[in-house]
């Protein structure tokens, strides 16, 4: 019997691996993973199911078990997602993205507007070409500046940095630990997918966030120095039907006191069980 968390779809010269965590009668929510990450990165599908949802995710090209696709833009995820949801027979769904997955969630909401009911993003990244580097990076922690400079410099500059970081993370990861297993799965084919994810946010995304028409929850943590609050604020001003929520218990790059409660709030809204107040 096929593994529902490692299904394979042929796509544009390669393959995409996706996971359908079920249950079949739950409202579908597509999770767009962070960078580095993979289809298994959202580790709590049971909590989503208990709320009435059906969690779905996939490995972006080069991540997990999906074939790498050099030079991809953020918007290139749209036909990939369309292929996955068509294979699952889904008419509509909600989309959520974290960090490097947030621009991709917005791309899906813009490109498949008629099929996306709600979209939520946290650890949100704003488009660099729209803000300009000075505004984009002004609230980031100093430890991010060298990383951002390497990404902007291009693949030749950022590759050694991420390959080294990946090797260190993999060496420390235990396969029998849930978090370690995700680390090992995320870059099982190397760091290429992670590199491509980072390069993609630094160039034009290939769509306009103003084309996101679904209700959009942008969750911002004031303690986040990786993707700081000015990113979320710009997105909230620019996306037509966006709601900005700022909370020290917002999921993202900063530690939160009650992540289970935060997930319950977020996914309840995505599934349609609750309104944002």
What's this, in brief?
With 277 residues, this protein is an alpha/beta fold.
Give a quick set of tags describing it.
alpha/beta, globular
Average pLDDT, to the nearest integer?
95
Rg over alpha carbons: 17 Å
Order of helices and strands: EEEHEHEHEHHHHHHEHEH
Number of helices: 11
Query: Which percent band covers the strand fraction?
Result: 15-25%
The N- to C-terminal Cα distance equals 44 Å
- Envelope shape: globular
Low-confidence stretches: none
Mind summarizing the main beta sheet?
8 strands, mixed
For the largest sheet, list the strands in their spatial order: 1-2-4-3-5-6-7-8
Task: Please write out the topology.
Elements: E1 7-11, E2 14-22, E3 27-32, H1 45-50, E4 53-58, H2 77-87, E5 93-98, H3 102-111, E6 116-122, H4 128-131, H5 133-137, H6 145-153, H7 155-172, H8 178-186, H9 192-201, E7 216-220, H10 229-238, E8 242-246, H11 259-271
Parallel strand pairs: 3-4, 3-5, 5-6, 6-7, 7-8
Antiparallel strand pairs: 1-2, 2-4
Helix pairs in contact: 6-7, 7-9
């Amino acid at each position: 019997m096929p593994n529902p968390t490692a299904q394979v779809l042929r796509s544009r010269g390669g393959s995409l691996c996706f996971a359908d965590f079920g249950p079949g009668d739950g409202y579908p929510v597509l999770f767009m993973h962070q960078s580095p990450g993979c289809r298994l990165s959202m580790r709590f599908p049971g909590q989503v199911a208990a709320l009435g949802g059906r969690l779905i995710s996939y490995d972006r090209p080069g991540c997990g078990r999906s074939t790498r696709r050099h030079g991809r833009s953020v918007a290139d995820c749209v036909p990939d997602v369309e292929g996955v949801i068509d294979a699952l027979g889904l008419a509509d769904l909600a989309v959520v993205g974290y960090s490097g997955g947030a621009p991709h969630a917005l791309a899906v909401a813009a490109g498949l507007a008629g099929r996306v009911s709600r979209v939520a993003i946290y650890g949100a990244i704003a488009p660099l070409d729209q803000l300009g580097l000075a505004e984009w990076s002004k609230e980031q922690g100093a430890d991010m500046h060298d990383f951002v400079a390497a990404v902007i410099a291009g693949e030749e500059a950022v590759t050694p940095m991420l390959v080294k970081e990946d090797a260190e993370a993999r060496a420390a990861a235990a396969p029998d630990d849930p978090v370690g297993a995700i680390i090992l799965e995320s870059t099982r084919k190397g760091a290429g997918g992670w590199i491509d994810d980072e390069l993609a946010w630094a160039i034009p995304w290939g769509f306009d966030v103003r084309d996101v028409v679904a209700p959009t929850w942008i969750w911002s943590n004031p303690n986040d120095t990786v993707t700081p609050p000015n990113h979320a604020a710009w997105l909230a001003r620019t996306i037509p039907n966006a709601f900005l929520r700022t909370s020290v218990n917002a999921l993202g790059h900063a530690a939160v006191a009650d992540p289970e409660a935060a997930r319950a709030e977020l996914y309840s809204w995505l599934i349609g069980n609750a309104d944002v107040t």
